Amino acid sequence: MAKEKPSIPKGTRDFSPEEIAKRNYIFDIIRNTYRLYGYKPIETPAMENLSTLMGKYGEEGDRLIFRILNSGDFLSKANEKDINAGDSQKVSAQICEKALRYDLTVPFARYVVQHQNEITFPFRRYQIQPVWRADRPQKGRYREFFQCDADVIGSDSLFNEFELVKIIDKVFGELGISITVKLNNRKILAGIAEYIGFADKIIDITIAIDKLEKIGREKVNEELKERGLSNEAVEALQPVLMLKGSEKEKLASLRRTLHNSATGLKGLDEMEEVFGLLENSPANCHVELDLTLARGLNYYTGAIIEVKANDVAMGSICGGGRYDDLTGIFGLPGVSGVGISFGADRIYDVMQELGLFPDDVLTFSKVLLVNFGPEEQKYTQRVLFKLRKAGISCELYPEAAKMKKQMQYADKNQIPFVIIIGKNEIETGKMAVKNMRTGEQELMDAEAVIGYLNKN
Fold first, then answer.
1. Torsions phi, psi for 3 (to 5 deg)
2. Residue 8 and residue 341: Cα distance in Å, rounded?
3. Is 82:324 a contact under the CB 8 Å cutoff?
4. Distances (CA, A) of 338 to 167, 179, 300
5. Which tens digits make up the pLDDT trace of 340-390?
6. What is the DSSP-derived secondary structure letter of residue 5?
């Protein structure tokens, strides 16, 4: 009987050393930018209590939560009537008390409430960890992926929104990705819902219009009607969603339309303040008001942020927003927060497609020392440790193989320098240093080698 080939679950991936190096390049730029802006690192467990996660992401999000079966005889706690009726939702709630985290924001809110007496507010945290979603795998969408979050909690100031846009601008500027930052505000969307006479349908409206880019206007309109909006309301929504002009013109037009909505006007005030701060200290990237931006998540209450790559057909590569009372769900009301999350996996795919990774990102060892045999190895070994002590990454080829094989090894592993120490080099005290990129070779002593390698 043939053995089944080893495999991994769909929507997950193995990462090679080269892929890890490229991912770490992205993580390091994000992490260093967060630190530059005063954010502190935390980590939370991969699994949370299911009750912590459920009801925080909307109807669609809840369906994508990976549940974990209880240990032992998990069926013993299940209601036999529900099992026989095939009620998977009820049975799932009875046999699963834990789940893999869906994002980092809700666990962060739980963390803040649990550790509120140890935290100084406003609290600025960043977190780079994997999350899991039971989604259908496709290009740029995985079941296991990393998020790189930054949040400020315990501050109502819109300066935080402005700084998050500046963080986004800096990160993607360093990565070399041309982007557009799209901004909206849930209060504006609520005002629009009031304007068309369906204030109670704000969640349905946002879920539908968030799909505008994916499925187009006609299908969004169909979904709005299916969710209970009248033909007149859907018609009234069209000119608002397709609003054109500069950000000032859009905001001025909306102010006229939403003049009877206190909530809508509050959202417009907030957006004008953020755009005013950006006018005073402009971003290098393009920032625009996009009224179709909803993100479909229940916990956003103010600003909504989404980032798109300009040169690649890809979904959102960064997003976030303000959530005024997420901690209230866990017993700490009235604590406002705002945050963003970089989608590292999608950023990786964009950079791969555009060829944006620098050549030296795949350099693990800077130097290979050639092995000529036991006698030469004793001398070469001492050089090896001198180089490492000087902070130069290097390795000694483990066997006295043919020179051609050792050179091929250096070439395939993108090692830029090779040091050759044979009998002549040992006698003179000078070793041959070969630059693999240029083919040039020089003789120098150990101290000169260290200086040369540190310069190059």
1. -75, 140
2. 26
3. no
4. 13, 21, 9
5. 999 998 999 999 999 999 988 999 999 999 999 999 999 999 999 999 999
6. P
Question: Whose structure tokens read 């809110």?
Answer: 109
Strands laid side by side in the 431-435 sheet? 394-396, 367-369, 417-420, 431-435, 441-444
**Residue 131: strand pairing partners:** 145
Instruction: Round to the nearest angstrom and report the end-to-end CA distance of the chain.
Output: 56
| CATH 3.30.930.10 corresponds to the domain 179-310 | yes
What distance in Å separates the CA atoms of residue 371 and residue 421, rounded to the nearest whole number? 8
Do 267 and 201 contact (CB within 8 A), yes or no? no
Over the stretch 7-55, which tens digit does the pLDDT of each residue have?
999 999 999 999 999 999 999 999 999 999 999 999 999 999 998 998 8
Chain centroid, CA 79 distance in Å: 40
Whether the ω angle into residue 137 lies within 30 degrees of 0, i.e. cis, is no
Helix and strand element counts for the chain (H, E): 19, 16
Both tokens of 22, joined, read 């490229």
The residue extents of the domains of the chain are: 179-310, 363-455
Decide: 224 and 234 in contact? Cβ < 8 Å: yes
Beta-strand runs (E) in 274-393 = 286-289, 303-309, 318-323, 337-343, 367-369
Beta sheet of 286-289, edge-to-edge order:
40-41, 123-132, 144-153, 337-343, 318-323, 303-309, 179-185, 286-289
pLDDT computed for residue 238 by the predictor: 85
Same fold, 179-310 and 363-455: no
Q: Return the biggest CA–CA distance within the chain.
A: 93
344 - beta bridge partners? none
Residue 206: Cβ within 10 Å count: 24
Chain segment 263-283, per-residue pLDDT in tens: 999 999 999 999 999 999 999
| Candidate CATH numbers 3.40.50.800, 3.90.1720.10, 1.20.140.160, 3.40.50.720; the one for domain 363-455 | 3.40.50.800
Residue carrying the six token digits 């290098």: 284
Contact, 90 vs 107, CB < 8 A? no
Is residue 455 within 8 A of residue 405, CB to CB? The reply is no
Q: What angle do CA 338, 237, 276 make, to 5 degrees?
A: 40
Residues of the chain with pLDDT under 70: 1-2, 72-91, 93-94, 140, 295-299
Q: Please report, to the nearest 10 degrees, the dihedral formed by the alpha carbons of residues 344, 276, 254, 234 taken in order.
A: 0
**For the chain, the helix, strand and coil percentages under 3-state DSSP, each to the nearest 5:** 45, 20, 35
Residues present in the chain in total: 456
The predicted pLDDT at position 209 comes to: 80
Distance CA 445, CA 449 (A): 6
